[in-house]
UniProtKB/TrEMBL annotation:
Domain ABC transporter: 20-250
Membrane-protein topology: Peripheral membrane protein
Listed GO MF terms: ATP binding; ATP hydrolysis activity; oxidoreductase activity
Name this protein carries in UniProt: ABC transporter
Annotated InterPro entries: AAA+_ATPase, ABC_transporter-like_ATP-bd, ABC_transporter_ATP-binding, Ald_DH_CS_CYS, P-loop_NTPase
A cellular-component GO term for this protein: plasma membrane
Keywords: Antibiotic resistance, ATP-binding, Nucleotide-binding, Oxidoreductase, Transport
Biological source species: Bifidobacterium cebidarum
Highest taxon listed in the record's lineage: Bacteria
Major subcellular location class: membrane
Localization annotation: Cell membrane
Length: 270
């Protein structure tokens, strides 16, 4: 199905006032349906968590919304504009955090950020000034001249996030942004993202850490089998329960611990 014909599968109109409005998004890989008619609205200025078990369709959905993966059907809009009618225009107003294997790690931290800014059309002087601001904000000043390949996992995560923010996007899309980040750096990153959302920016994160989502996010969507099980504010989705317990109710899959006769803490050897 062509992109121009996708709107025929949209069950109800998208919300032009939302930061992101998705209707009937569908993606198949061979015999596997990764995203199955997913619809969702993400309000402007929200800190939105996308949660779900492995293989639920979170990353595939985000890749389609951000113009990195072509949908088979459905509609994705960013700030009222159809992503797939003008994908380059959509990409200019969003910041997507790259994965560590997607960056040029033979550049220094400063060079990588300046390069990311200039790719976005910024002049070198402006990109350099912003890069230095970000290095300071992310506690990477001492590593500004170090090649990224020599960074720790947590430092690499931070430089990836910084590269997504250098052009001051209106929407930030972050896939597991706090994985491998130490608690101090994680706290600093959270403060930066929360302040960004307070200024009117929209943050969308996918995460497996329910406690983090419950503490940071204003809204959450639970995704399973390529569809949204529940969406709304944290309180609306949790319904008075711990978010993790509510999540397990929605997606299922929890079972009693397996009782393995040989797994006895070494009692048999004693």
């Amino acid at each position: 199905m062509s992109i121009d014909n996708m709107q025929g599968n949209v069950a109800f109109p998208p919300n032009p006032h939302a930061a992101v409005s998705i209707r009937g998004l569908f993606k198949r890989f061979g015999n596997n349906i990764a995203v199955n008619g997913l619809s969702l609205d993400i309000p402007v200025g929200s800190f939105y968590g996308l949660v779900g078990p492995n293989g639920a369709g979170k990353t595939t959905t985000l890749n389609m919304v951000t113009g990195l993966l072509t949908p088979d059907a459905g509609l994705a809009m960013i700030l009222g504009a159809d992503v797939w009618r003008n994908v380059n225009a959509a990409k200019r107003i969003i910041g997507v955090m790259p994965q560590p294997d997607q960056i040029f790690d033979r550049l220094t931290g400063l060079q990588l950020l300046v390069y990311a800014g200039m790719l976005r059309g910024m002049k070198r002087t402006e990109a350099t000034a912003r890069a230095r601001d970000l290095l300071a904000a992310f506690d990477l000043n001492a590593a500004a001249g170090t090649m990224v390949t020599d960074y720790s996992a947590g430092m690499t995560k931070k430089i990836c996030l910084a590269s997504a923010m250098i052009h001051s996007p209106r929407i930030l899309v972050l896939d597991e942004p706090f994985e491998s980040v130490d608690p101090v750096s994680s706290a600093n990153l959270k403060d930066i993202l929360i302040e960004y959302a307070r200024t009117g920016g929209t943050v969308i994160i996918s995460s497996h850490v329910m406690a983090l989502v419950e503490k940071m996010c204003t809204h959450v969507a639970v995704v399973n089998n390529g569809q949204v099980c529940a969406a709304g504010t944290i309180d609306q989705v949790a319904q008075g329960e711990d978010l993790e317990d509510r999540f397990l109710q929605l997606v299922g899959g929890r079972h009693e611990a397996a009782h393995l006769s040989w797994l006895d803490g070494g009692k048999a050897l004693a």
